[in-house]
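Researcher: Here's a chain I'd like modeled. Treat it as a single chain, no partners, no ligands.
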Amino acid sequence: MRRVFSALAAFSFSSLLLLSAATRIDDPKTFVTEVYRRLVAAQSTHSSYTPPDGIYTPRLEKLLRDDKRKAKGEVGCLDFVFWINAQDWTITHLSITSADEGQERKTVITKFLNGGEPQEIHFDFRRNAGRWLLDDVHSLSAPPWTLSEILKCAP
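Model: Modeled as a single isolated chain. Structure tokens:
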């Protein structure tokens, strides 16, 4: 019985490590590419996909958490999926590039059509304690927006 319990505990611990490793960002462009791959896969199977949490800088994490808290179970300031600049998606003509802005900063640029509408979204990543984290998101499509500004709406 002790061996079974020890094995179960070890399995649970290793599962937690795998889950946390799944959201570790080793390369921002690869990470963003995988998120969009899963979004496109979800649209083709008519299923849902929610990009991972735990990928944000402390500043952006606080803004997201405050938005959820202020919303009190309702829709908060962020009322769309920022990855696609909409609530629903049909992504086509996707291209993803990246630009290094020093050793501690990278920007990943996505361009695609969502339901035929052109989208261009920039993801700003910062290295924090050796990890890449998402620091902000900007849409250059009309109307342009910045995620951190959206999250600062009045309560």
